[in-house]
Amino acid sequence: MVGLGLIAVTPDSVARAQAQAQAPASKTEPLTIATKSGAKRFEVEVMRDDAGRSRGLMFRRHMAADHGMLFDFERAEPVTMWMKNTYLPLDMVFIQPDGTISRIAADTEPLSTAIIPSGSPVSAVLELNAGTAAKLGIKPGDRVEHALFQRR
Predict the structure, then answer these.
(1) Which 3-state string (H, E, C) describes 64-112?
(2) pTM
């Protein structure tokens, strides 16, 4: 995650994260990706604070095919992500402030602590089920349409 310093992981914090992951998903918002082959629509949970961004999809075992998680970093900067405690393989879509996709890290490895860099300044990251970007033809240069990018 962005600016990950050292995070204290205690048995209590892991138990809280697991309980939150098993709770009903947060409210979703519509998101569309404009590709060369047409619009691809998703319902996304939006993580707008440090606690939500840190938790992300940790401990979840399932995500619907047309769902995702959007991480709002509030400003453009290089970001790093990881898959620690994340059981779902994911595609990470790195998004510039204007909604343009700059990079896609496809098929990330579950439970890995390997750092996944944005490669350039971005203001958001969209996590989708692994293989979704390739299956739907989502590529760098495509545009993400969501209220988050209209404010910038």
Answers:
(1) CCCEEEEEEEEEEECCEECCCCCCCCEEEEEECCCCEEEEEECCCCCCC
(2) 0.83
119-144 exposure pattern, b = at least 16 Cβ within 10 A, e = fewer? eeebbbbbbbbbebbeebebeeebbb
Average pLDDT of each block of 10 consecutive residues along the chain (152 residues)?
46 56 71 97 96 94 97 96 96 98 98 97 98 98 94 54
Fold annotation for 28-150:
Jelly Rolls (2.60.120)
* Tokens 């996590």, located at residue: 127
Residue 5: Cβ-neighbour burial (10 angstroms; 0-12, 13-18, 19+): exposed
For residue 33, give the 3-state DSSP assignment.
Answer: strand
